[in-house]
Every structure is written in C-alpha cells, then in structure tokens.
Amino acid sequence: MTPDRTISARRAAARRGVLAVATLLGVAPIAPIVRAADARTGASAALAPAIVPNPLHEIREAGVFRLTAATRLQVPAREPGADRAAWLLRRWLRRSTGLRLAPPSPATPGRSSPSPAIRFLRRARTAIPREGYRLVVRPRGIAIEASSTAGWRYGVASLWQLIPARSGTPALPVPAVRIDDAPRWPVRALALTVDGDRPSPREIRRLNDVMAILKLNRLEWRKVRGAALDLDTRQSRAADEPPGLGRVLNLAEAYRATPAGPDGVRATAGTRGPRTVSQLERRLLPRAAALAEVGWSAPSRRHWRDFLRRLIVLERHARALGLHVSRAAFRVRTRIATDFHAATALVRLSTQTGYGTIRYTLAGGAPRADSARYRGPLRLRLPVTLRAADFAGGRRIGPILTRRLDLPTAQRRTSAQLSLCTERGSQWIEGAPSVAGVRTKFLVDAANPCWVYRAADLDVARRIRVAVGWVHFAPATNAASRAARTVTAPPRTAPTRAAGELVIRLDGCAGAPLASLALRRTPSALTVLPPLPLPTSVHGLHDLCVRLPPARRGGAWALAWIALEAPPPP
Questions:
Q1: Would you give the DSSP letter of residue 568?
Q2: Which residues 6+ apart lie within 8 Å of 564 measured at CB?
Q3: Does the residue 12 lie in any domain?
C-alpha cells in the first residue's frame, strides 16, 4: 500500500471511530459529517440544521432530500392527528416557499410509495413519548414518527425549519438528518391578559402558528400568578417598538431569565397596548423563542451563541410565513459625542447581541456584505449620512440604520432618548393620530411626567424648543395594571381643561428654574411649543430637568422631544 493510501485508510478508520462513539453517546459530530456531505452533494455548511428550540438528539447525515411539487404527503388511515399535521405543513410551505403540495393521501399498509414522499408514521408510546417525535430525512424520503397529534405537529415544525424559505428554486434542498426529540417540561405556556378587545379568530390562528412553530403547548386567557416572563416590556429603545411597559427586557435577558415553575415555563403578554396584530407579534417574537428553548431543550443543548445562529434562520422563516418579528436583537445602535466647535462627531456602533459583523457606508447607498467593516469608533466630519447594518454569513441579518448627522439635529432628543426622573409606572405610549395620520410615541411616567436631558451643551444653544402631546390613561383592571397605568387610545373628545405649566430646571429637578411656559387649555396629539430663550449667563454642560403637569381626569401631558437651538441668523 502506498503512503498516500495508508494515510487515507487511517483517516477513514479514525472517522468511523468518531462516528461510532458519537452515535453511542447520542451526540452529533457536525463538522466532519457536514464536510462529507459537502464533498458528496456540493451543499454548503449553511445546510447544517438550525432548529428552535434545539432538539434533544440530532445527527447530520450525508446528502439532501429534494422537495418538489411532486413530493407526496402520506398519512396513516384513520389518523386525524397525522392528517391535520400534514395539512399544517402544506399550508406553511405554500405561504413561506410558494411550493404547493398535493393534499395528503392515506398510505397503504405494507406498501412503500414509488415516488419521493413525506410519510407520517405512528409509533407506540413506549418507543416515542407523548409529545416526542422522530424526524428522519434521507435523500429518498422523509419520515415523521410520533405517538400523538402533538408529536406529529412538532415534527412538522422542525421539518419546516429545515426547508429553505423563498429560495426561488423548484427543488428545495432539505439536509439529511435524524432527530429524536421530546420536551424537557410538560407545560410551555403563553398567557394572554385580555385587558382590551379579545383577539379576533384570525389573530388567534396566527398565535397558534407561533405556538406550533415554537412547540408551545398552552394558550391561556388569564393572569398568571407566580413565575412568568413580563413580555409587555419593550425589546429595545428603538422608536418602532410596540406600545407597552417602559422598561426594556432584551433577548439576552429573556434567554437567561425565563422562569421555570414546578410544571414548566410561562410567558405573559397583554392585549391592551398593541393596536394591531403585527404589534402583538413583534412584542412576542423573538423573545417567545427564548421561552420555547428553556421549556423544551435540555440544559446541555442551550448555548447562547448557537441559539442566535438558529434564531436568524427561524426569523427568516417566520417573516416568509407572514409573521412580524422584532428586529431589535440585530439592530445597529449608535452612541454619538458631538464636538460642535470642530463640527465633528465620534460615533460608536454596536448591536444588542454582539452577533455578526457591522458594515457601514458614508458615501450613499445601503451597506452590503463587502462594505467597510466597523472596527472601532468613527471620527466623522459633519454633516454626513451614516448607514449601517449587521451581517453574518454574507447575509444581512438586521435592519439598515440610516442616521443623518449634522449640528442642528445633534442637540435634539426624543423622550425615549431621555432619562425618566422616576420609573415607577413608565409606559411606551402611542398617542392619537395627527391630521396626517402619524402617531407619535411617548415614554412617560404618568404619575410623575418628568424627564432629564443629560449633559446638555449650552455653549452652542440660545433657546430651547419642546414638543408635547396629550395621552389618555384608562382605568386599570387590577393592582398590577393600576401600578403600571395601562394605556388605551385617546377618547374622541379630549379634555378641554388641561391647563398647566411646563418647567425646565437647571442641574436636576431640584435646581433653579431655567424657563417655563403655560400650556394651552385644549390639548392635541402633538404640539410644538414656542421657543424658550436661555439666559445669556448660562454656559457649559448641564443636566436639564423637564417637568409637565401631573396626570388628571384620565389623561396627561407627555414630552415628545426637546431640542437645543442655536441663535437664528441675523
């Protein structure tokens, strides 16, 4: 035997030994198997399975199954659970890929289909637990084995996540894999507190899709007592976050802090704040995926960075299905320090998760995978337009940030960019629509409508301009919502006696008054107040405290934004 053949034989024997040990231990040596599959099929590493929640046992095999319109769905006779799961897969594929499969047909016992097929098979409880399933994908066919309706449905959810979304090809490659899976906890619940209108049948169907995808098994219509995750919070400080509680619970915090009770895990969400189904879905997703992973996956199968890798694929599938997902986890954030005298800005970029690579452009155009890579703070000469986005694997995984940087806007802050004086009952509120139909959002603590503008540079400003709006607070239905001051849409007729005074104080809310202005008696959705001149004796960096009258008669004034302005030209 030649030396080259001897080395090859030794490598093959070592590879067989690794596979045997891995099979014995129930783990998947992903990298060697993927390389072998790539060599045989030309598939990329992107075909590696990416499923949320992470399955209990997963072994990647060689090859792919080509899913086409000719693929048949075969179900056991007199098994309505398998039939419903097949129809669910058919509907998801039509919406997320455009592929239309024929309706499921009963399988003939003892006979195999001559054409490629997805087969639903019943197994005994002794072989597969009640909510468990076995998914086997091979180049010649796919089998979903289960002992219950839930198991078939969860097998469909995992298979659907393996199928490329909107690939534009008539044959969809599904990586060959064997998955043996079952939940860690018996209860994985989403509890909705119906404070406003009960969701419509269409909205409930969409929620059922979310729950099926994430393998959640209970939709509860009640207030949960005890350990639960409070998804009424914002996922970030971005302006497009749905209305809800003022504090932020980001994805990493949800993944670490999802509580487990004696029988499982629960998350709660209210229906009062969101006005649309898209807002409710963006409140839930992707944080509900963190709940799903904790409730389903074994601790040894939970890894934060790998969860993010799989979450990116899940989000792509969910959007292809028509669901709305918050993009806060991969959104580029900015921290800007402006030098007004030199007309420059020091810009720091980051994302909530730190996953991926930030790419940016300054010369116009959207960032691409080959755009400049962000490696550290950028010193930019003003004015300039910055565009940035997060990338991974050569694909954009977050929204494009577009930020115009110039001196006039450098001193403007929205309420979400300011600090609240107190956070006892802070709310992120969507106000009434303006004449043009635009709804302004406000971050406010109605019991103490007070904000702090940190380190305002008064050397380059001679006046202050403020925009305020009127928001309505409905009576609360329980102690928790009374403390949080649940918000609903404004009444048709706003109160006509909302007179009060806006006061701005220097160096904290106990400091000397800097400026004040009487508010109009008839409030509106948004009012830009007349400019307030600054005393000529005030210079340097100062904290400005902005206070509005307290809530009364079910409503309150709220700050939309504050801007420090240079003196007007002569």
A1: P
A2: 411, 412, 456, 457, 458, 460, 461, 463, 464
A3: no
Looking up residue 75, the CATH number of its domain turns out to be 3.30.379.10
Q: Give dist(CA 366, CA 358) in Å, integer.
A: 13
CB atoms within 10 A of CB 176: 25
Helix (H) or strand (E) holding 544: strand 541-547
CA–CA separation, 353 vs 331, rounded Å? Answer: 9
Same domain, 279 and 337: no
User: What does each C-alpha distance from 410 to 343, 364, 374, 383, 454 come to in angstroms?
Assistant: 10, 20, 22, 10, 13
Take residue 16 and report the two structure tokens written for it: 């067989």
The CA dihedral of 185, 190, 193, 199, to the nearest 10 degrees, is: -150
Q: How is 95-143 classified by DSSP, letter by letter?
A: HHH---PPPPEEPPTT---SS-EEEEEE--TTTS-TT-EEEEEETTEEE
In this predicted structure, what is the pLDDT of residue 288? Answer: 94
Specify whether 442 is located in the same domain as 555.
Answer: yes
68 residue type, one letter:
T
| Below-70 pLDDT ranges, the chain | 1-48, 109-114, 194-198, 222-227, 258-260, 271-273, 473-499, 568-570
Q: What is the pLDDT of residue 526?
A: 87
What is the chain's alpha carbon radius of gyration, rounded to the nearest angstrom?
28
Q: Which stretches of 241-372 are DSSP H helices? A: 251-257, 277-284, 287-296, 304-320
- Alpha-carbon gap, residue 485 to 407, rounded angstroms: 37
Give residue 168's region: left, alpha or beta (phi > 0; psi -120 to 50).
left
Domain limits for position 213: 187-325
DSSP-derived 3-state class of residue 218 = strand
Asked whether the bond before 259 is cis by omega within 30 degrees of 0, the reply is no
Query: Cβ(421)–Cβ(415) under 8 Å?
Result: no
Note the pLDDT of residue 34: 29
Give residue for tokens 């925009």. Answer: 467
Counting every residue, how long is the chain? 570
Alpha helices in 389-510 (DSSP H): 407-410, 479-484
CA 38/CA 19 separation, integer angstroms? 17
Tokens of 505: 């104080």
Per the domain annotation, does 101 fall within a domain? yes
- How many domains are contained in the chain? 4
Same domain, yes or no: 380 and 499: no
Residue 426 in domain: yes
* Contact criterion met (CB below 8 Å) for 390 and 368: no
- 133 - beta bridge partners? 146, 181
